[in-house]
Design brief:
The chain is α/β, with parallel strands linked by helices and 393 residues long. The chain has helices spanning 15-27, 61-80, 106-118, 128-134, 157-170, 214-218, 286-300, 347-363, 377-381, and strands at residues 3-5, 8-11, 33-37, 53-54, 97-101, 123-126, 145-149, 153-154, 174-177, 180-185, 190-195, 200-202, 206-208, 227-239, 249-251, 257-262, 265-269, 307-320, 327-330, 337-341. It has nine helices and 20 strands. The protein is globular, with a radius of gyration of 21 Å.
Length: 393
């Protein structure tokens, strides 16, 4: 059994762990920072299995500001994350996002639009006819309209993750291939982690960056996080559709989404009420698309009456059952135990702002963007912070 001491331990080496480690060691190069990750191949990690989207179209101000900061970071990401002369290429395509709504969702969407524009976002409202003239592939007669965010887009999520990981390590973070067995505490102060190997890592600061596994890490401490590992499936479609350039990513009123990859290839998915809550099931089901998603998709894109499901995959969302928003900051009943959990599908795009914010909290630096609205206190006090219900995908 080995004992080592660190200033900060990140329990989970996905995008949140690596981004937070990067901001910590960038701010203070003398810090001893450990990133503990059980699977450095990231075969089941949520980041590589997500769609890699970023958007400013939220209804909570702090979510919008996090995305605006994320766009700033992405504009210089390749330059700032150079390691050994190699630049990470994240393949950011700013094709935009369309959020469509029915009549029930119109007011929420337009309230969000007003807030987004007040914060300087490039978003516009379009009627169904305006959208259909612009994108003849679509049939939106059942929609009330929607918003188009010009700054939004998609990128390679694995490249962003590896960019943060490699840069954090270059700056001095220690990446440890191991699994956290349990967290240690003494008189309401976190004291470190014990690995399943038996080794002990001591620290007065531990950050739960375990993603979909966040609740299982916190539960033995008597901390009941409302975070559930929820299976989401993505389907890759080959269609006969042809157009110039890329269509914006499209989110239909029910949450069904369609992302144009190239030529006639699209990815498609949808969160469903009966999505499995599980840590272990990563099988995708072709019939789920054929029986549930396809009939709805054809209503909006009639040319998709004939297509081929080329492949698919499944990954885990860390769904915050309280309100679908992030849980950020120090757990009020355990000093030194910080949370970056419950992102419910939009964690990838928020990692930049979250990593910076947590590093500022831990190091007692001035806060660049106040995210205290997402404090863990609201879990204990049952004070949800709701996004518009049409915005979570």
């Amino acid at each position: 059994m080995a004992y080592r001491t660190y200033d900060v331990i990140l329990a989970g080496g996905g995008i949140m762990g690596c981004a937070t480690a990067y901001y910590l060691v960038r701010t203070d190069p003398t810090l001893r920072v450990a990133i503990v990750e059980k699977d450095p191949t990231y075969a089941r990690a949520s980041t590589p299995l997500c769609d890699g989207n970023i958007r400013v179209q939220f209804n909570v101000k702090e979510n919008i500001l996090m995305s605006l900061y994320g766009l700033e970071v992405l504009a210089r990401f390749s330059e700032e994350m150079v390691v050994g002369g190699e630049k990470p290429e994240v393949a950011f395509h700013r094709q935009g996002n369309i959020f469509l709504v029915n009549e029930e969702g119109r007011q929420t969407a337009q309230e969000g639009l007003s807030l987004q524009k007040a914060l300087g976002c490039q978003v516009e409202w379009f009627s169904p006819d305006q959208f259909m003239r612009r994108y003849p592939l679509l049939n939106l007669t059942s929609c009330a309209g929607g918003t188009l965010g010009y700054q939004d887009g998609t990128m390679d999520p694995f490249a962003v993750l590896m960019g943060y990981k490699r840069k954090a390590v270059e700056l001095g973070a220690n990446f440890i291939h191991a699994e956290v067995g349990k967290l240690s505490q003494d008189r309401r102060q976190i004291t470190g982690v014990k690995l399943t190997s038996g080794d002990v890592l001591n620290s007065n600061f531990v950050v739960n960056t375990a993603g979909a596994w966040a609740a299982s890490l916190a539960d033995p401490l008597g901390i009941a996080l409302p975070v559930r590992p929820t299976k989401r499936q993505v389907f890759v479609l080959e269609t006969r559709a042809r157009m110039d350039g890329l269509l914006p990513a499209i989110i239909f009123p029910s949450g069904l989404y369609l992302i144009h990859e190239r030529a006639g290839r699209f990815t498609c998915g949808k969160s469903l009420p009966d999505d499995l809550v599980s840590y272990d099931d990563f099988e995708w089901d072709r019939e789920r698309f054929s029986q549930i998603l396809w009939p709805e998709l054809v209503e909006y894109v009639p040319d998709f009456d004939r297509l081929k499901v080329a492949r698919g995959w499944a990954g885990l969302y860390e769904v915050n059952m309280l309100d679908g928003n992030a849980i950020l900051g120090e757990w009020p009943e355990l000093k030194g135990f910080f949370l970056a959990n419950g992102f419910s599908g939009h964690g990838f795009q928020q990692c930049h702002a979250v990593g910076r914010y947590l590093s500022e909290l831990i190091l007692h630096r001035p806060i660049s963007l106040d995210l205290s609205i997402f404090s863990p206190n609201r879990i204990l006090e049952n004070r949800p912070v709701y996004e518009g219900k049409h915005k979570l995908v």
